Task: structure prediction
Amino acid sequence: MTKGQTLKGEGDESHARFYVCKGWLAVSKSLQDGEQQILEFILPGETYDPTGADGKTSFVEVEALCDATVITIDRSAWARLLQEHPDLWEAENLRDIAAQARQSERMLRLGKSSAETRIAYVLIELCLRLSNCSTPLDCAFHVPLGQQQLGDFIGLSSVHVCRTLRRLSRRGIITTGDHMDIVIHDVAALADLAGVDLAVLRNEIIPGVA
Result:
C-alpha cells in the first residue's frame, strides 16, 4: 500500500480484516461537507475489521498514512483461525479491550478537556503504544502524519495543534522535529498535563502488560 491509498471507504463492501505488518493506517469518518474525524490509528502488529453490523459494508474509511504492508484476511478464515488457536483469540480479545479503553480516554478529553490536555494525552498514548519499556523515562518516535491529521484525531485545528506543540516545546517537555519526529523529555510532566497515571493507563490501554 502506498501513502494516501484508501483500503476501504465508508459504505464499501467489506468481508475482511486487515493485519498491519508495516506502516500506519488511519480509521476515520467524514461528514457530508468533508469534515473528517480520525477515530483510531492501526499500528504494526495490530488488526482491524471495518465491517459494520450488517456484516457486509464498511462503516469507516481506512487509509494508509505512509507506505504500508497490509495482509487482508477473509472474515470466515479469520473465524477459523480464532477457533483453531485459542491463544490468538485471547490476544485479539485483549487488543479489542485495549482499543475500547483508548477510545474512552480520548472521548473524555474530546468532550471535557483543553487543547493542551488533548495533545498531552495523545502523545502519552502513542509513547506507550510505541515504547518497548514498561515505564519510559523519555520517549522518541515518529508519527507519519501532519498537524492537520493530528488535529483531526483530537478535534483541534492545525493552528491549535501547532501553537500547543510550541508551548510544550518552550517548556522543555517535548521536542518536535521535521515531519513529526517527537521526543518526550519529561514523560511524567506530560502525563500530569494529560491527567493520567502512567502505570494505570499503560495497564488499561496496552494488552498483556499487567
Remarks:
- Residues 86-112 form the longest helix (27 residues).
